[in-house]
C-alpha cells in the first residue's frame, strides 16, 4: 500500500507536477510522439515502462494537489456523487449515443434525441454530464460532437461491451454490497438473484456481450504484453500450449499471432464463450488455435502439453475453489516433461508502500470488482504461494515475470531428485 514519508506542501506538489509534465513532454519528443489533445484526431500514447512510471507519479502529485486545494469536504462530495456520472454513462451506452453522433460532424440535440428515442430534456442533461468530462463536446448550444474520449466507443464494439457490462450488471450489483454481507450471498447474487455464471447461462445475449467485454477490458488496461513478451515462448518449439479457462480465445489468438511456433488449445466450460470464435477470421493461423469444452474443476485431459496458462480465472473464485482448480492440473503436469511451466497471468496485489497511489487505486478497484461480482478477490504473491502449496506441496513459483495489473507467475511441479 502506498504511503507518504512526509506531508506534501502545495508548492512542492506544484513543482513536482511541473517537473513531471516536462519529463513527459521530453519523453514524447524523444519517442517521436505528438502531445495528446481532446480532439478525435489525437493519437494514443505508447505507454512503455518509462512513460507509465512518469504517468503514475504525475497522477499521484496532481491528485494530492487537488485534494489539498479542494479540501476534504469538496473531495468527498465529488467522490460520493460519482454514481451520478455513471448513470449518465449508462444511459449513453444503452441508448447508443456514441454511435448516433456522427464521427465527422456535429449533431443537433433534437436529432440525437430522435435517434436515441428519448426526450431532448434527458439527452441534453446526460450529454452535458459527459461533456464536462470531455466525453463529447458541445461546440455551440444544443449541438454535440465527438472528442477523443467518445470516439473510442463509437469505433470499438468491444469497448462499448466493456462499458455496458460495468454499467449494467456490475453497477447494479455494487449497490447491494453492504446488504449482502452476512447473507451468504455475494453482491451480484443479492442484486440479481443468481450467481454471475447462472445469470449468463440464463441470458445468452448478455453472455455474448460479456465475451466481448473481456476483449474490451484487455484493450483498456489489461494488456497481454506480459504474457506475449514476458515468457520465452520460443523455447517451447512447436509444442502444445493449453489456455485453461480461455473464454472466447482472444488472448490465445493474439499469442499465436505473435509466436508462429505455438499451437494452442483454448478450453472453457461455457459453450457461449467458445462460440464467439466462430465469428472471428482465424484463417491466418492455419489451425494453430483450437477450442475444447472443459470444466477446469475437473482433471485436465490434455497431458502432452509444453505449457499451461491460466489467465484472469483464479481471481473469480474463493481459496477452496482455486485449490480445486490447481489440483486438477497436477495429474497432467505429472505426465509432462519436468519443468513444464504453469503460467498464472493475474493481478498481483501490492504490499505496503510499494506502489503509486494511482496505480494501487486501480488494483484495489479490481479487487472490489471481484468481491461485487463473485465474492472473490485478487491476491498477493504470498497468497498465490499459499494456494499452490495447499493444492500440492510440489507446486512452487520459480519466477515472477511481472507484477501489478497483469502479473505473470511461472509455476513448476517439483520432481523428486
UniProtKB/TrEMBL annotation:
SUPFAM superfamilies: S-adenosyl-L-methionine-dependent methyltransferases, Winged helix' DNA-binding domain. It comes from the Eukaryota. The keyword Mitochondrion does not apply. Residues 183-391 form the O-methyltransferase C-terminal domain. GO terms for molecular function: O-methyltransferase activity. GO terms for biological process: methylation. It holds the Pfam family Methyltransf_2. The keyword NAD does not apply. Keywords: Methyltransferase, S-adenosyl-L-methionine, Transferase. PANTHER family: PUTATIVE (AFU_ORTHOLOGUE AFUA_4G14580)-RELATED, STERIGMATOCYSTIN 8-O-METHYLTRANSFERASE. This is Sterigmatocystin 8-O-methyltransferase. It comes from Westerdykella ornata. The lineage of its organism: Eukaryota, Fungi, Dikarya, Ascomycota, Pezizomycotina.
